[in-house]
Amino acid sequence: MSGTDRDVVAALRSELAAIEPARACDLEAERAGLMGGSLGNHRDPVLARLAVRLERRGTASARMAARSVAQGAGAGAGAHEPASFVALGPPFDWKKSSEHCRMAYLRGRFLARGSLSLAGGRTHLEFVLGETEARALASQLSDVGLPAPWRTRRGRGVVTWKSAETVGLFLRRIGAGGALLELEARQVSRTLRGELNRVLNAESANLQRSVAAAGRQLAAIDVLDADGRLTAQPYAVRAAAQARRETPEATLSDLAERLGRHRSAVQRALERIERLAVLGEAVGPPLA
Fold first, then answer.
1. Cα separation of 115 and 109, whole Å?
2. HEC profile for 85-138?
3. Residues 121, 4: contact at Cβ < 8 Å?
4. Bridge partners, residue 158, by sequence
5. Minimal CA–CA distance to 31: which of 90, 84, 115, 75?
6. How many whole angstroms separate alpha carbon 264 and alpha carbon 256?
7. What is the pTM (predicted TM-score) of this model?
8. Could you tell me which of 79, 89, 96, 76 has the C-alpha nearest to residue 34?
9. Distance of CA 121 to CAs 50, 117, 161, 169, 189, Å?
10. pLDDT in tens, the chain (288 residues)
11. 3-75+82-176, what's its fold?
12. Residue ranges per domain, the chain?
C-alpha cells in the first residue's frame, strides 16, 4: 500500500475515532465495541485517547444518573453518590439494541480490531478476533445487511470483505465522512486510469497490427506489379491495391469508404493480393 493510501486510511480512522456519540447508549455501545475482546490494550495513540474519552464521558454520565437516583430517593434520608463508580456497564446486548447503537458498536469493533488495505488498487477490510468473536461478528453483520465470510487463520478468526462497494457502505454507516469521500475519489481515479490504460494499450496493439498488415500488403502489391500479375486481377483487387498505395496509413474502414465498398470486400481483395504474392496463385473464391 502506498504512503498516500496509508495516509487516507489513517485519516479515516482518525475521523471515526473523533466522533462524539450524542446518545449515552451509543457511547456505551461504542465503548463495548472498542474494549470487547481487547481490554484496552491499545498501542495506537488515537485509540488510546478514544478509550480514555469514552471512559470519562461514560463515568460522568453514570455519576449524573446515580446522583439523580439518589436525589429522587430523598437527600434527607441520607442517600449519597457512591464514592467509587466503575463505569464498565453490562455486556453489549446486540439483539435488543437499536440500529444506531449497533452502528456505534461496530465502529468500536472496527477501530479496535479492524484493518483496511488498499494495496494494488484492491480494497480489503478485515477484523482479526478470537474464533468465537469472529463467528458472532459475522452473524451480527448479516443482521444489518452486510454479510461477510469468516475463516480461521493461524488460530484466529478473520472476518473479511473484499468488495469496495460493501466496504464503503460499512464505513459510511458507522460514520465515516470526508475521509471516505477522499478514499472513494481515489478509487474512482484509479479505476479510470486503469480503463484508460487498457483502452490505450488496445488501440496501440490495433495500430501496430494495422501498420504491419499495411506493410505486408504494400510489399505484396510491389511483387505483383513487378511481374505483371496485378494488371490481370479483377477491378476490385486493382482498386484496393491502388488505394492502399496512395494511402498506406489508412485503415480498412478508410479504404472501404474511399472505394465505396464494404469493408469485408476490401479486406478480401487485400488478402488475395498477399496470397498471390506468397503462394504464386489465388486461393479462395474469385472476386468480382
1. 10
2. CCCCCCCCCCCCCCHHHHHHHHHHHHHHHEEEECHHHCCEEEEEECHHHHHHHH
3. no
4. 128, 151
5. 90
6. 8
7. 0.59
8. 89
9. 30, 9, 14, 18, 10
10. 566 778 888 888 888 998 888 899 999 999 889 876 444 445 677 777 787 777 777 655 544 433 433 344 343 333 333 333 334 456 789 999 999 999 999 999 999 999 998 876 688 999 999 999 999 999 999 999 999 999 999 999 999 999 888 998 999 999 888 777 777 777 777 778 878 888 889 888 888 888 999 999 999 999 999 999 999 999 999 999 999 999 999 999 999 999 999 999 999 999 999 999 988 655 444 454
11. Endonuclease I-creI (3.10.28)
12. 3-75+82-176, 199-279
Say how far apart CA 111 and CA 33 lie, in whole Å: 9
DSSP-assigned states of every residue in the chain: --HHHHHHHHHHHHHHHT---SSHHHHHHHHHHHHTTTTT---SHHHHHHHHHHHHHHHHHHHHHHHHHHHHH-GGGT----S---TT-SPP-TTT--HHHHHHHHHHHHHHHEEEE-GGG--EEEEEE-HHHHHHHHHHHHHTT----EEEETTEEEEEE--HHHHHHHHHHTT--HHHHHHHHHHHHHHHHHHHHHHHHHHHHHHHHHHHHHHHHHHHHHHHHHTT-GGGS-HHHHHHHHHHHH-TT--HHHHHHHHTS-HHHHHHHHHHHHHHHHHSS--SSPP-
Give me the count of residues in the chain: 288
Instruction: Give me the sheet containing 124-129, strands edge to edge.
Output: 114-117, 124-129, 156-161, 150-153
**Three cell numbers written together for 32:** 463495548
